[in-house]
Write a structure and sequence with these properties.
mainly alpha; 157 residues; Four Helix Bundle (Hemerythrin (Met), subunit A); two-stranded antiparallel sheet
Length: 157
Amino acid sequence: MHPGFYHRWKRSQEDRGGEERATACGRGGWRRREQSHGRSAYQASSFGVRRPLRYMAHKLDLDDEQIDTLAGILNVLKTERAQARLDEQRSLAGIADAVAAEDFNHAAAAEALGARVEAAERLKEEVLTTLQKTHEMLDPEQRKRLAYLLRSGQLTI
């Protein structure tokens, strides 16, 4: 196992509480185990902007100016996604409070769910803005490559 992966492996084992420990197979290869919430251990950690940026720069053959523009676009999208996750956690707390009361508090639950819908709408608008700016930045050949990456599932937005 490469020394740089030990910390991530150890953290993933602690998160699982020792259940279904991932084993190294072959020469340091990792087997992906599905966690209870349906995401693999690799998808559970966030990579920020750098990894998708490097991947897109390589696959689309972006020049330096395009890379700088795309970095800004992805950074804004990353921030909005983090805010949407935070809003979802807040809404779950509001729903839990509504359920924990003596009588079900319909108004509080509706307000918490409304906040979740608003966060989803803001995220939708930001994704649309990201797609528009990315489309304007790319040349026709790069757009075709991006469309292929999206259709094949190699890249998700």
